[in-house]
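Box S1 | Example of a co-folding query
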Amino acid sequence: MTLAELKAEALECQACPLSKLGRRQVVFGVGSEKADLMFVGEAPGYWEDVQGEPFVGPAGKLLTKMINSIGLDRSDVYITNVVKCRPPENRDPEPEEVSICVPRYLNKQIEIIKPRVIVALGNHATKALLGKSTGITLLRGKKFHASNYYIFPTYHPAAILRNANLLSVFAEDFQTLKEILKEEPPKEPAQLSLF
Ligand code: URA
Ligand code: SF4
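Box S1 (continued) | Returned holo structure for iron/sulfur cluster
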């Protein structure tokens, strides 16, 4: 299956309750199909739901700046979310919604794109990708070996907008990320399936 075919399927998706809770459109993902680096957020917010693209609101602008700070553009990486539809009032995605959406779309996006490093932005992405509920403060800035890629948790950019004290650590994590991208990717065949 190609990424375009998966996207076409997603745009019509009615598989979980978020399809009926006021989403304007499905926000599938954006960027390079051949990206070495992938970013996974939580769920589309207001601006993402309006524009159909992940991370285009205030948190997205900060994420874009950080991507630029390591010498990359949005078009060099792939950006998506754990769930592809906006939860009402930006509530957290429910476990049921995550467990329906992730195997249908996120896991397949990872299989098709084959990134070397997946950055999990915040607690929701970290839990979905690593299967750990350990808080982001303990997991951030470390790389976790998952099948043939690394998972690298860091703060969600929205958390930085709420607490500017976290900015220096967030910036440090991006410098660590830049170093990880220079390393050889892990070799084992893909077999990570959490759901
Ligand atoms: N927050 C997210 O988790 N994802 C987006 O796409 C935008 C804001
Ligand atoms: Fe489908 Fe995912 Fe949207 Fe639910 S959140 S309707 S599973 S695309």
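The pocket of iron/sulfur cluster (ligand 2) is lined by residues 10, 13-16, 18-19, 26, 83-85, 97, 100-101, 104 (CB under 6 Å). The chain is about 40% helix and 15% strand.
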